[in-house]
Amino acid sequence: MYSIPICRTAVRLAAVALLSSSVRLAHAAPAAVEARALYGRAISFAESCTDIAYFGYCRVEATCTLDGSAISTDAETQHTILDLGQCIGYNKSTEQLTWRSKSVSRWNMGYCAPCSQCTIDPDTTEMTCDCSYVLQSKDHTSQLLLSDHVYNHEGLLSCLDVIGDPDPNYSMKTTTASTE
């Protein structure tokens, strides 16, 4: 008679222990997760995309290969835009742009404000943003390495969360496939 409740309790305790250990591992994982090969054929964002640029309103645009191969191949490419507001947000206490612990849909995202004037180094994928305030004495810059959390999967840019899982939200495709 007592074996069933004890068994259920043991299973619940094991599940809680497993969950807590995975949470500890997730928090122990470095915030900068290399996106290379974490999802399907995804390789480095910088290697599989070209014409990487900041598009305004916290968006990045690029031309990426459809099969995730290096851009130097004869692979088909397409132009794509990623709303980075899905993946990053402004942390008021640190006054820096930071990766979200969990991505949000495009309908719930914010912009990079007050860090809205940004540039992206296409070779390193480092995004540097000027953060402007009414009190100019607080003006500063914020930097993020996009290749740590942005990946190309089938020609679309998406984000990885802080533990390296793919972003389930839709990435916006702007044009049809073309060859270069």
From TrEMBL:
- Coiled-coil spans are none
Superkingdom of source: Eukaryota
The signal peptide here is 1-28
One Pfam family hit: CVNH
Q: Which InterPro entries match?
A: Cyanovirin-N (IPR011058), Cyanovirin-N_sf (IPR036673)
Chain ranges of the Cyanovirin-N domain: 44-159
Matching Gene3D superfamilies, A to Z? Cyanovirin-N (2.30.60.10)
Give the record's keywords alphabetically. Signal
Q: What is this protein called?
A: Cyanovirin-N domain-containing protein
From what organism does this protein derive? Grosmannia clavigera (strain kw1407 / UAMH 11150)
